[in-house]
Amino acid sequence: MGILDPIKGFGVTFGMMFKKVATEEYPEAGAPAAPRYHGRHQLNRHPDGLEKCVGCELCAWACPADAIFVEGGDNTEEARFSPGERYGADYQINYLRCIGCGLCVEACPTRSLTMINFYELADDDRQRLIYTKEDLLAPLLPGMEQPPHPMRLGDNEQDYYVNGPELARKQPAEPKEPVK
Length: 180
Hints:
Blueprint: H1 5-16, E1 41-43, H2 58-62, E2 68-74, E3 86-94, H3 103-107, E4 113-115, E5 130-132, H4 133-136, H5 155-163, H6 165-169
Antiparallel strand pairs: 1-4, 2-3, 3-5
Catalytic activity: a quinone + NADH + 5 H(+)(in) = a quinol + NAD(+) + 4 H(+)(out)
Protein name: NADH-quinone oxidoreductase subunit I
Subunit structure: NDH-1 is composed of 14 different subunits. Subunits NuoA, H, J, K, L, M, N constitute the membrane sector of the complex.
């Protein structure tokens, strides 16, 4: 240990004093997340504004942390929320428990649940970390008031909800020639 070692240490400090400071204005201007980053969940809609969630509760069953609560409800002629017979009446994700594994997204048969790249999920109030259906629903497209009552579905969506996923994927069979 030499007598000049403390002076060498102060030399590093002295050298940094004249460099330009790199300041990040994080809360005002957040850094963009990577395009494939999976952060907060989102409940998607059909192009006509109806919800894709049918209240099947498969995402809640697949969640290893038991962070998702889903209660299904039945659609009526007066109030239609999704194209099928049922919809997710009550949907909650507790981000205090969520581990971000994405198993809920993989379990969703209608692809209504996805994870967007929003990453600011910290809060100092535990109640605000329980996201409800209103917090998770994708916004309506511009110019769209409320979802129309008579459901308008594309050909593939009509087949999916009327015939079920197995029959919607099957192509019509070619007629076989009789065996002689």
